[in-house]
Design a protein that fits this description.
mainly alpha
Length: 158
């Protein structure tokens, strides 16, 4: 089921990348699937225990709501992370949050070195990747973090 989660987060990331917004029409079905999966299978989509999945969602909210209050993260980012936390569990949520932050820092450093023409192209074609007034699209970095974690799991058999 991790493939389903990865594709869903990719769809959210793509929408965030293009529109700087993640629609509830994308988020609510994922949240509903994750919530229905827990009692039906006694585990999360990624195989975490019910308590770990609920803790993952709570951690995601605790880690993203301050950013939303400060105006750095949008409501869609908060809901995306809560859904991902519910799907993956507590430890994965912490790792995903750290990896997403790391990818964001790498991107911010790369953006500082991009020529003006490249920034203009990004602004037209992928506006979510251009940091404006301290705001950015968080969805693509969540996707990169989840994809990185999945790749590491495949490579190292975890």
């Amino acid at each position: 089921m991790m493939g389903v989660l990865l594709l869903w987060v990719l769809a959210c990331a793509f929408q965030d990348l293009r529109q700087r917004h993640i629609s509830n029409r994308l988020l609510y079905p994922l949240m509903l699937l994750a919530a229905a999966w827990l009692p039906a299978t006694s585990q999360s989509l990624a195989g975490a225990s019910i308590s770990s999945a609920l803790t993952g969602a709570a951690l995601a909210l605790a880690l993203t709501i301050p950013g939303h209050i400060k105006g750095v993260l949008g409501g869609g980012d908060v809901k995306l992370m809560a859904a991902v936390g519910l799907c993956t569990g507590a430890m994965a949520t912490l790792v995903l949050t750290a990896l997403a932050a790391l990818w964001l820092v790498v991107w911010a450093l790369a953006m500082a070195r991009l020529p003006t023409r490249a920034c203009g192209w990004l602004q037209r074609h992928a506006p979510g990747l251009v940091i404006q007034r301290g705001q950015f699209a968080y969805g693509p970095f969540v996707f990169l973090a989840l994809g990185s974690l999945q790749l590491l799991a495949l490579l190292y058999g975890a």
